[in-house]
Amino acid sequence: MKLSIIIPVYNAEKYLQKCLESVFQQNLKTQDFEVVCINDGSTDSTSKILKEFQKKYINIILEDQENSGEAISRNRALVLSKGEYVTFLDSDDYYDEFALSKALHSVESQNLDILYLKINHISEDYQFIQSLPNLSNNEILSGLQHERRPFPATIYKKTVIGDILFPLNIIVGPDSVFNALVQSNAKRVSYSSELVYNYLVRPNSLSKKAITEEGYQGFMNAISILDEYKHQHFSPENAEAQQYFDKVILVFITRIVELHILPNLYQPKYVELKKLLLEKGYWHLATSIAEKYPYFDVSFSKFSRHQKKLIFKTKVYQLIQKIKKL
Questions:
Q1: Rounded CA gap, 205 and 169, in Å?
Q2: Cβ(26)–Cβ(99) under 8 Å?
Q3: Where is the Glycosyltransferase 2-like domain (predicted)?
């Protein structure tokens, strides 16, 4: 078995048909790939659609479970998967024609650990919106050197994933942590602008979850998980690894600052974040935050005073603009 395509599915009746059709139109031999679908407690006609495809195609692996979330679904599918390579497909997304067959040829012929596909953003009525910026084509770098790309438009060699799973204590961004950990182990990573994964842009609750207390704790957990993995697998003298993990951890620090500290200038979370970063040795990343939000790396009082001043200036400017329109 060459390739396992993992699709977690929950109430996806509106999009699932197109998603699955795009998989089975990839010009792959039946014996070369499997589609592992985890039905995560769907209550619409998702189960019916999956069973209809299962009757038609013998290489669909279908498992039903109580609603548990995408992370648990993906982890279960990883356990079930038998392919030498693994990729993930969201149930509302789809591939361009022959993208996977060409991708599989690339990873095999170039002995790649990871291959990133180009991502096109598509509207709900399947109109093209934009493409994410390209990376250098055909350049093969180590995982620590290669730029990370958005999950899930990625082909992974199964041995590089090893025993890494999607963390369960992060409600927004477990895929980012999974991808970062796996890529850190990769020796040969590349990107293709010719092979397209179509990402359907539609309203969802992820942004709402990100601003909850559970979302905040998840971001804090992500920092700890990344730091622990770095210490377990890389020496302090490995400068590339230190820079790589700094960059990933900075993403989660930024989310905490912008979603949980800035909106209400909430000091307790500033203090908690500062304590974590000092304990883990990442306070130097506060300097990067301070480039955008001055005085963040100095003290909360100076940081908050500066932000309040900016808010006041913005309100005055808006008032002046209103008066000019009268």
A1: 17
A2: yes
A3: 4-134
Percent of the chain with pLDDT over 90: 87
Provide the β-strand partners of residue 196: 118
Distance CA 9, CA 54 (A): 14
Tokens of 177: 């942590």
DSSP codes, 101-133: HHHHHHHHHTT-SEEEEEEEEE-TTS-EEEEPP
d(CA 128, CA 120) in angstroms, rounded, equals 7
What pLDDT does residue 151 have?
87
Instruction: Quote the tokens at residue 40.
Output: 């995560």
Angle at 65 between CA 61 and CA 68, to 5 degrees: 120
Domains of the chain: total: 2
Same domain membership, residue 262 and residue 150: no
Question: Has this prediction a pTM greater than 0.85?
Answer: yes
Shared domain for 226 and 296, answered yes or no, is yes
Task: Choose among 94, 68, 83, 75: nearest CA to 32.
Answer: 83
Same domain, 221 and 258: yes
CA 288 from centre of chain: 22
Residue 318: what pLDDT?
A: 67
Give residue 325's pLDDT band: very low, low, confident or very high (50, 70, 90).
low
On whether both 25 and 151 belong to a single domain, the answer is: yes
- What one-letter code names the amino acid at 4? S
Q: Which of 155, 144, 173, 171 is nearest to 251 (CA)?
A: 173
CB of 7 within 8 A of CB of 75?
no
